Model the fold of this input.
Amino acid sequence: MTGYGKLTGKIALVTGASRGIGRAIAQRFAAEGAVVVATARHLGRSEDEPGTLAETVALIRQHGGRAMALAADLEDPAQREQLVPQAAEAAGGLDILVNNAGMAEYSRIESMPLEVFDRTIEHYLRVPFVLSRAAIPWMRARGAGWILNLGSVTALSPSRPYNDFDHAGGATAYAAVKAAINRFTEGLAAELEADGIAVNSVAPSTAIRTPGSERYIPEGYPTEPVEYLVETALALCSVPARERTGYIAHSLHFPLAHGLDVRTLDGQGDLPPPVVPAWAHPALNQSGLCGG
Done:
């Protein structure tokens, strides 16, 4: 452990932690002292998914953090129903749930198969609902908790005149479900505020290149480093609900507005303050929030 101990004594379940944003959040939370239960579909390497839970756990332990791997296929109703109790029982409780897992599948509406639409809802709305519902009693028993949902800047309405990305289409169904998870976040935050359980959402201000997203990001597009989103995630999972709940936060805007020092994933180094590029969505205000 090499951070400031902001999450010392906390237990965090991070879904989709074998790679990309989920792995980065798991590393940063462990650096701040959390015991991380890292989950994804497979413990080891699969043919269609780079990265493994074993690699994530090894990276965390290499820097003195504590982590365990727990495989679960969240498309399987039985496995997703059991994930939270299995994680809490294995780790000794649950304080933080990060709903990160999902596989984006872009397609114009006129050509989108119904099974792709259904999978999009499954990954990005049903799974967070099921896991959040299961986590609430565990968090309530510990007197507080944090639920963090991964959002997307695509949830914001397209600006007019429409740009080439919007004309090309493909993100409409995905974006609509991400807009739904934002509203879910705000509503659940209100329901759980009296229990001391914070519910927030974090999304890139622009785009982050990961193994899951790179096929949709044009070559040469200037993506942002994942560390800014991860620092925002940490800020949303380390402050009591009475101070910070119902936030729909964005990765570059939020650290600037709140004066956050952005650190490397191992907690040992510092990154420069973020710079919000001119192409960021104009609906994002200077607080880094959209609503909240």
Observations:
- The first helix runs from residue 20 to 31.
- The radius of gyration is 18 Å.
- The beta strands are 11-15, 35-40, 66-71, 96-99, 145-150, 197-203, 248-250.
